[in-house]
Amino acid sequence: MTELRVSLVQSELHWEDPEANRRLLEDRMGTLDGGQTDVIVLPEMFATGFTMNAETMAEPAETSSTLEWMRLQARERACTVTGSLAIVEGGNCYNRLIWMTPTGQMTVYDKRHLFRMGDEPRHYAAGSRRQIVEIKGMRVMLSVCYDLRFPVWLRQQPTADQPFEYDILLCVANWPAPRRHPWRTLLQARAIENLSYVVGVNRVGEDGNGLPYAGDSMVVDFKGEPIVDHSPNETFVETATLSNDALKTFRDKFPAWQDADTFHWGD
Prior knowledge:
Helices cover about 25% and strands about 30% of the residues. It has seven helices and 15 strands. β4 and β5 (about 90-100) form a beta hairpin.
């Protein structure tokens, strides 16, 4: 049986204070390590909050203290650590999701859909490619917050040899409380339509712009049913175990993918 343990870290964040957030999240993660989990998931822009002060707060990709912190956490805890940061590289700022393995191997995904209602396109450059990583035989599609509203970008792209690109959709977010119903609904919708697990990690508390966040971090199974689901506004760390065998069994018994429309997002 193939199983993946995924730990959700739902926390408040200090506004534009990376050092304080690193201390806070290290404390939140507590004794989580490779003996207890395979992946630790932190929220979107976990070092700063959802800041548009990118010109000041974005960390250089080559010398980022938070990237080094992630590398240290992954190594010492013997598990993958993931979450997004404001990163500057090549003259552009990116809302970049980092997937850091225990060996220090890093995969990145730059947020494709920038939240125009929050002025994000004025301060960050959009990514141009999807990113899927593999861990313990399960494939993980990486996404950030507003991406969740765009099903074509996140849709499974089958081939003749492989009907599924990924087994887990991972979405990290700073999704405000007034729109918590869409957040929860879209997490479940993406799981149902893609016959995959969905892991969504949001924050709680209030940011520097006075926006409240209710959290609602969830793990949803391939039928759209919540595996992890807490009351709003809670700070928590919880580990869910995702079964690849259960996923494959359901896909075989309910092969809705065979009736899906054939298309590719680039079309």
